[in-house]
What does this fold into?
Amino acid sequence: MGELRSVGASATMNRGELAKRGQRLEYYTIAWNTLEGLAAMITGLLAGSIALVGFGLDSLIEVVSGAALLWRLHHDADEQKRAAAERTALRIVGGCFIVLSLYITCDSLHSLISRKAPEHSIAGIAVAITALVVMPLLARAKRDVARQLDSAALHADAKQADFCMYLAAIVLSGLALNLWLGWWWADPVAGLIMVPIIAREGWSALRGKTCADGCGH
It folds into this structure.
């Protein structure tokens, strides 16, 4: 957790040290999101919650993104390889988002049409709350490194962590409404709310526009 708490501490680091810090953050991302994704998918499948399963898939997609960024950061010292790795990592991130948006759309619409209500999931609520705590810290730490490395790919990865936090809030709302008010439709609707956010981020990554707000400034 030291990497998450040391936001801004890299101001005096050289590029090599920053790349190594980014690598440590990606190792943490891969480990954390593997556990988070498996927990969300297992509890989601047991409860029949599309939003929770979608959240778990998003976490596993972040593992793929983290691996791509880890590969990119290992090539940071070589400027030519760095540029190629940036483009490849952005395409991977964008493609994963598009696939996820299609999955959630199909499953959410199926549940609404079939009127299939998810079971209550206290464990799923706990997973979502934990993500709401951890993801902002991880996103902030990644954004700090991305800004100093002027890395579009790492900035996109930081936005994924932000996005995971937003999804956790949406999932938590859907699960809570189903638990307390019996609104079975809240879960698939929560899933559909995710779709335009996911698709937009995926399209932006595929077009290489994730740093349009100036991540290097």
Summary: The first helix runs from residue 2 to 5.
